[in-house]
Design brief:
The chain is built from ten helices and nine strands. The strands form two sheets. The protein has a six-stranded parallel sheet, sandwiched between helices. Strands 7-8-9 form a three-stranded antiparallel sheet. The chain has about 280 residues and is α/β, with parallel strands linked by helices. It is globular, with a radius of gyration of 19 Å. The relative contact order is 0.13. The chain starts with a strand and ends with a strand. It binds adenosine monophosphate. Adenosine monophosphate (AMP) binds next to helix 2 and strand 5.
């Protein structure tokens, strides 16, 4: 397995792989890898000859009051895990090289980034789309894999890929969960024992919504009310940033849960912000 830290070296390698006719898969991450990330590496391997996993804690997608400084890191462990998942190349660029002091070019997706995460974290997606466009240009993938866990991110990045005409197949991998349903996340590390026990409230609320829809209750107002009751019953101190019902592709809000509606939510628990989502129909 190769670990590459310089942009020029990564560009040379991706060019050579392409000219050798190898199909390149890309899995962008911020490191501190868990089974969710590794499932994406394995999925990429099914669609590509060689998989590049990137590790970069992207400073521009963090707001000024967010957790950039304390974001968990474990480079050695990450490299070992990528190797065990069959990843061939790990690209770990430096922030200095990605964002030199005179950096001034940004990639932005318009209306899809105004709601949900974009409303609570107004500068977040500008950072995400810019870094992913840069990684596309450096790594020249044929396919890219992102996780359903970050539902809005996958919709925004699929749109960017399409709008900018990147010849890249866009794949979204399913959310990997703990046994009790909590979606794996690098940020779960911040949860103390009490918050960890309460963190099940997100999945519990989503599953409640799914049951209600299966029972024929499809008005989002009624489903949301029940979800809020489940969350406050499971996690009394939880603060709900949003519960939203939207179309899976356009993020248009839905009043009634029909085919293609996804429920997303963001909840703060003892200072830790968690997000999750589930397709309800
Ligand atoms: P991150 O390191 O949080 O930026 O995530 C890197 C990629 O892994 C993104 O495409 C995420 O959506 C994806 N991911 C994060 N958590 C999970 C999970 N539990 N299951 C599947 N994919 C995930």
């Amino acid at each position: 397995m190769r670990v590459i830290r310089s942009v020029a070296q990564m560009q040379r390698l991706s060019r050579r792989l392409a000219s050798d006719g190898r199909k390149i898969g890309l899995v962008p991450t911020m490191g501190y890898l868990h089974e969710g990330h590794l499932s994406l590496v394995r999925l990429a391997k099914r669609h590509a000859d060689v998989v590049i996993t990137t590790i970069f804690v992207n400073p521009t997608q963090f707001g000024p009051t967010e957790d950039l400084k304390r974001y968990p890191r474990d480079e050695k462990g990450d490299i070992r895990k990528i190797r065990s998942a069959g990843g061939e190349i790990v690209f770990i660029p430096t922030a200095k090289e990605i964002y030199p002091p005179d950096f001034q070019t940004w990639v932005e997706v318009d209306s899809l980034t105004n709601s949900l995460e974009g409303e609570v974290r107004p500068t977040h997606f500008k950072g995400v789309t810019t870094i992913v466009a840069k990684l596309f240009n450096i790594c020249r993938p044929d396919i890219v894999v992102f996780g359903q866990k970050d539902f809005q991110q996958s919709v925004v990045l699929a749109k960017m890929t399409d709008d900018l005409g990147y010849p890249i197949k866009f794949i979204v991998g399913p959310t990997v969960r703990e046994r009790d349903g909590l979606a794996l996340s690098s940020r779960n590390k911040y949860l103390n024992a009490r918050a960890r026990a309460e963190a099940i409230c997100l999945y519990r609320a989503l599953v409640t919504a799914q049951f209600m829809v299966q029972a024929g209750l499809t008005k989002t107002r009624i489903v949301e009310r029940e979800m809020r009751a489940v969350i406050s019953g499971t996690a009394p101190s939880a603060k709900i940033d949003y519960i939203a019902f939207t179309d899976a592709a356009t993020l248009t809000p839905a009043k009634v849960i029909r085919k293609g509606v996804v429920c997303s939510l963001a909840v703060r628990l003892h200072g830790v912000r968690l997000i999750d989502n589930l397709r309800l129909a």
